[in-house]
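ok so dumb question maybe but i'm new to this and my supervisor (M.) told me to 'just get the structure for Dihydropyrimidinase' and walked off. so i did the thing. is this what she meant?? sequence i used:
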Amino acid sequence: MSFDLVIRGGTIATAADVFQADIGIRDGTIVQIGDSLGEAAEVIDASNRLVLPGGIDSHVHLAQPSGDGIVMADGFESGTRSALFGGNSCVLPFCLQEKGQSLREALSAYHALAEGNCYTDHSFHLIVSDPTPAVLGQELPALVESGYTSFKVFMTYEGLRLNDAEILATMDTARRTGALVMVHCENEDAIRYLIGRHEAAGEVRPKAHAATRPVAVEREATHRALSLAEITEVPIVIVHVSNGAAMEEIARARARGQKVVGETCPQYLVLTAKDLDGMDWEGAKFVCSPPPRDEAEQEACWRGIEAGVFDLFSSDHCPFRYDDPAGKLNPKGRTSFRHIPNGIPGVETRLPILFSEGVAKGRIDLPRFVALTATNHARTYGLEKKGSIAIGKDADIAIWDPAEKRTIRHADLHDGADYSPYEGIEITGWPKTMIVGGKVMIRDGELVGTKGAGRYVARTRSALATF
Ligand code: URP
Ligand code: ZN
Ligand code: ZN
Ligand code: ZN
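this is what came out, is it supposed to look like this??
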């Protein structure tokens, strides 16, 4: 048997196992795993390296508009390049339906932006912001059938939030079509009440963002989302969980037999609300929702990662610039935290942070790392050929130097933002060589692949969907 590419001498990790073997790749697919594989057009020596499934970041925002004329700092080119350098071979950005827009219109706009520009494979979740009878009755079912098998609903954000009746109706469409619903759980009315109180007291700086979105706001909405999912009998993903109380809601729903997946993100492990209290509005660089909490909640999130309440670890990459007049802190943003767009960059640092803080520090083992960063994303979101190193899977592979020491510096990253909220964090372990669909895209830290090599992937239904 001959191969296009053989990866030789590495330590392979999957969600189940760690073992030594060579990997043979042909036509973009893993075709053999074993010893002394035959002839290959190209051989990569992976001795003293870890050979992992390419990361799948199932929660990123690229090229999404964010109101007040503020532009997201990454489109598909810079966003997927940054993802690739961070050890990812596939990302799942959101396609935002604007009010009055059909889902198909929204999708064709996002596809046009992505086409020919991606360094990683990609697929889209839909954001349903206008669940009209036509959208829920006709459009969405047809789109689920053609590979858009998950959609996100928001319980917060003006113009985006759905009320309970709309969430129930959207979940019912998921039930009828076998789709998976992702829910952003924060109680918008409670947030508005707290914003009013803070603004009246003259508290308009970024740290008030965290104070107006306390744990109770998230816990209540999480409980409600889980109840609505129980009533409609659908599996759901609770995205970007920031604290122990919301996590316990998930654990309790699971104990009752509900199908629910919890997701957490790096910001809830290594940032706190104190980061929003920087000098001269610097705290705006850490404004995201839910906000980072405190050390006790960081520990709670770690317990969720270790114990398996969280099955997904995603970045929620949502980048904005500051040095740009239309950036995150344009003049309106300086009048009140309420006008600072929510979101922080992190697609390139997600995997190194979890590897360094989790694997290198002995909190989780390699199979758990692989599950949290690749395998579970593929299973949850219907990426059948991705997320593992196994015969028949796409040859999406990240070769890591587990001993490399680095300090996170935005100057070394590849996104379109102008800062990293993780600046200065010391890291052990970094992805060095990236293979996407059998193509070497990064070799020993050097970009050798071209944009457009990353392809769109239509998805099957979630492994959680009972259809
Ligand atoms: O603050 C955040 N998380 N921004 C991104 C949008 C979202 O809610 O995921
Ligand atoms: Zn969200
Ligand atoms: Zn998000
Ligand atoms: Zn940058």
